[in-house]
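Our working data are protein records whose layout never changes between entries. Getting from the letters to the tokens is the skill we practise here. To make this concrete, we reproduce a full record directly below:
***
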Amino acid sequence: MRCVIARFPFDLTRNGVLESMKGVKPEPVTDDVVIIGRRHYPAKQVGQVVTGQDRRDFSVGEVLRAMTRLGFTCRTAASASASASMASPYQRASTMLGARSVPDHGQGAGPGRP
């Protein structure tokens, strides 16, 4: 599939991306993510490996658009924060205190609860 990244056209295929990323250790994820196999890669890392371009030459949006068109699952920082805001106040407090994920079991503040 023809994709334009950093103003250059690339003929990318799903198998080509899988082959390029084989053996590449994922860097710590802070923002936008491309899920390749069972690994979560930062979008900029994927763009650099697949295109050979410097990370400053392309945007995250270009990489996410191309990877989505190839059928990879992509997550943005906005979608991650939206799912985090779905947690109850009890769950968010537990997370901030460093506790493992704890089910709420209806103990959080909600309608009719202080």
